[in-house]
């Protein structure tokens, strides 16, 4: 409350709970933030409804490119241990997609563009992922540990690599789309209207600042940063304290 109003009308004016211009401005910002939080909740609720509509069969199914995956080699599939190696393959198999049947990709060699076959490897799980796959003791004997460098990590990552990859071969099949998501026209319209409202008024930046502030100021970003007080012992010290610290350093 402004002191001029108190002096003019007395202390009884405080009972009316009148607000200053600054308080009114702050209340407008707080009200806008509350509206943006409600918009975000509504947006998430509509998205959840959209993805929970389920699937419906596509008649007739259509082909969209090719998929490539590992299968047992013919001699291994006919052997006595076919079931044993199939159980391993089910846990470390990988699947890749391409619009070309030959899975050729463009590379550059000596400044010239060439086409090479896209590489594909078996899964090499990390330590915690390897435990989740629940391999038996006999299956674990067919894995050895390798430390490999990754782009997303400065230190080498411990990975479990299968020692007999020759037992598996790649096979290519058409990638068929047999089902599609159920769509609701009214729900899609509501989501689009909400997105248009946010984009036209440029509210996305303010929503991100309110909702994801914790993620931007995560503690791990400053975990390895040296504290300023440790780097500069004279920080936030008075002149008398600085002189005492210098004097003690000379004595020591």
Strands ordered across the widest β-sheet: 2-1-7
SSE pattern, N- to C-terminal: HHEHHEEEHHEEEHHHHH
CA-atom Rg in angstroms = 32 Å
How far apart are the termini?
A: 56 Å
State the major sheet. 3 strands, antiparallel
Work out the helicity level. 40-55%
Strand-pairing-aware structural class: alpha+beta
Low-pLDDT parts are none
Number of domains: 2
**Count of alpha and pi helical runs:** 11
Percentage of β-strand residues: 25-35%
Number of strands: 7
Give the integer mean of the pLDDT values: 87
Shape: flat
What does this structure look like?
The chain has two domains: 22-53 and 183-244, no CATH class; 58-180, no CATH class. It has eleven helices and seven strands. It has helices at 3-9, 21-51, 74-77, 82-92, 127-132, 137-140, 185-200, 204-211, 213-216, 228-231, 239-251, and strands at 55-72, 95-98, 104-109, 112-117, 143-150, 153-162, 168-181. The strands form three sheets. The protein has a three-stranded antiparallel β-sheet. It has a two-stranded antiparallel sheet with strand order 3-4. Helix 2 packs antiparallel against helix 7 and helix 2 crosses helix 8 (204-211). The longest helix is centred in the first third of the chain and has 31 residues, at 21-51. The mean pLDDT is 87.
For the structure shown, list the relevant keywords:
about 250 residues, alpha+beta, 2 domains, 3-stranded antiparallel sheet, two-stranded antiparallel ribbon, 11 helices
């Amino acid at each position: 409350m402004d002191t001029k109003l108190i002096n003019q009308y007395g202390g009884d004016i405080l009972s009316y709970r009148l607000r200053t211009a600054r308080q009114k401005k702050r209340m407008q910002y707080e009200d806008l933030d509350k509206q943006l939080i409600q918009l975000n909740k509504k947006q998430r609720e509509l998205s959840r409804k959209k993805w929970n509509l389920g699937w419906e069969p596509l008649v007739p199914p259509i082909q969209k490119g090719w998929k490539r995956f590992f299968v047992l080699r013919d001699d291994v599939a006919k052997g006595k241990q076919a079931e044993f190696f199939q159980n391993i393959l089910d846990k470390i198999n990988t699947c890749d997609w391409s619009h070309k049947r030959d899975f050729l990709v463009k590379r550059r060699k000596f400044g010239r563009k060439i086409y090479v076959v896209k590489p594909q490897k078996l899964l090499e799980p990390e330590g915690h992922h390897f435990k989740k796959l629940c391999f038996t003791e006999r299956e674990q004997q067919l894995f050895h540990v390798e430390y490999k460098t990754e782009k997303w990590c400065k230190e080498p990552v411990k990975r479990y690599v299968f020692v007999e990859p020759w037992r598996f071969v790649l096979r290519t099949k058409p990638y068929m789309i047999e089902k599609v998501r159920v769509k609701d026209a009214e729900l899609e319209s509501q989501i689009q209207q909400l997105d248009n409202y946010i984009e036209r008024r440029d509210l996305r930046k303010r929503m991100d600042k309110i909702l994801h502030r914790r993620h931007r100021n995560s503690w791990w970003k400053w975990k390895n940063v040296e504290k300023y007080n440790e780097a500069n012992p004279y920080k936030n010290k008075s002149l008398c304290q600085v002189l005492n610290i210098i004097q003690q350093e000379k004595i020591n």
